Amino acid sequence: MSKSIICTAKDEAQAEAIVLRLQAHGVLIENISVMVTESGASHDIGHVKTSKAPEGATTGAVAGATTGGVLGLLVGVGALAIPGVGPFIAAGPLLATLSGIAAGGVSGGLIGGLIGLGIPEVEAKVYKERLDEGHYLIATHIKDGDEEKKVKNVYEELDASDVTTTSEHSA
Cα–Cα distance between 8 and 127 in angstroms, integer? Predict the structure, then answer.
């Protein structure tokens, strides 16, 4: 069963350091997801506004590949509006799932989407609060215990907050 190890980073510099360190430790870029509110993102992050997951992921990946910033490094950068929450920029495997929520107008918004990804409700509320404060949410998708230990060590070394491990559910 796949798992995700999730954390928050207080700003873009910390998020970028985490992503780069994960890559240096052998984590594939396609296994890293990052999410930030549009207002919390810098102008260096490439994104395309869309709520159509497949088209948005493809277009966002092209835009992300041509610009700097931590999200520019990741697969499928796109912007989406989550009902009752507002605009977010997401990249990686989270984008497709959350884009489906945004496109479908799923009630429960971001918290419901995070719960759908296997995050307990209490933690989903904490992540929403952190995102509202401009923090970055980082999810690293792993397959085994060795990867889990490696990712947790990176998060700890770089002072990430709100670290949790969750089993992934298909949404």
Answer: 7
Gyration radius from the chain CA atoms = 14
Contact 9, 138 (CB under 8 A): yes
**Neighbour-count burial for 138-166, b at 16+ CB within 10 Å, e otherwise:** bbbbbeeeebbebbbebbeebebebebeb
**C-beta of residue 53 within 8 angstroms of C-beta of residue 100:** yes
DSSP output for 94-112: HHHHHHHHHHHT-TTHHHH
pLDDT digits (tens, 9 = 90+) for 9-54: 999 999 999 999 999 999 998 899 888 887 655 544 333 333 333 3
Nearest to 60, CA basis, from 42, 80, 83: 80
Answer for the pair 60, 77: CB distance below 8 angstroms, yes or no: yes
Single out the residue of 72, 78, 75 nearest to residue 56, CA to CA.
78
Bridging pattern class, strands 86-91 and 78-82? antiparallel
